[in-house]
Amino acid sequence: MLAMYMKRKAVLPLTLSALVLAACGEADDQEETGADENGTEAETEEAEEDGEGEASGNVEGEEIELVYVAWESELASTNVITQVLEEYGYDVEMTQSDQSPMWQATADGSADGFVAAWLPSDMADDYERYGDEVVDLGANLEGAKTGLVVPEYMEDVNSIEDVTSEHFDEITGIDAGAGVVITTEEVIEEYDLDVEMTTSTDAAMTAELDSRYQEEEPVIVTGWEPHWKFYEYDLKFLEDPKEVYADGEEIRTMVREGLEEDHPEAYQILDNFHWTPDDMNEVMLDISEGGMDPEEAAAEWIENNREQVDEWLDID
Fold it and tell me: Which domains does the chain carry?
């Protein structure tokens, strides 16, 4: 925003010489002011061209709370959108939660929203329970997928129908209550598998995968994409001929009722938020392989994708 300057002029006796001097002084002031304004405009334009301009709204001190599940995909997305909202001027609090409490907190208004709704199948139970009590802003990422995943070196296991206790001791899942875990329980029943699933965490699941992968041992895990493990390891989703896992998954943004009235700019930024699986994987890889913390990885992605972020910040 250009600065506005106010100059005070001394009052002189109205003699002819004084009037001439005043006129000359005003001309000099106008030249200096014009130079200052032109310089300020040039600096502002240069900063915007370099992507260094920082969006800011009249929201200083306003607080937004985003909830998220501790999956690496949601660490990536929530940290990115948090920093974008902070850039606009909001104070943003990120609160880690389990899946169902994340929905409940947004439905009862104790949190403002989340960008982690895997639908239509993965979080279908939560959507059915809380969908009428939240505002669905639509997909922020398309092309997501869930299912059972094994290494490519397991050439004789290509379908869920091939999963037997002869190949595997167990299916390694993530946290109990996660949509992919609930659906996998249905898969075990539907396919009458003789292999049980153990629940853990995203980090524990990938650690188990890594340990067995390095030795080329049999391993099967609950998987979803985007996820950095598909870049780190040669993996494949098992075919699902009974179509228990849904095709066409997407990740949606959900916010509380009343957010648009209370914080219209935040509502629009969250509504504008949309990126690709490759975008999300880039942040996750910086965390998992690059050794960055989530905040640092999110900041670097924002810096490298300034034009896209500015579109999210384009407020009517």
Answer: 63-141+264-312 (3.40.190.10), 144-237 (3.40.190.100)
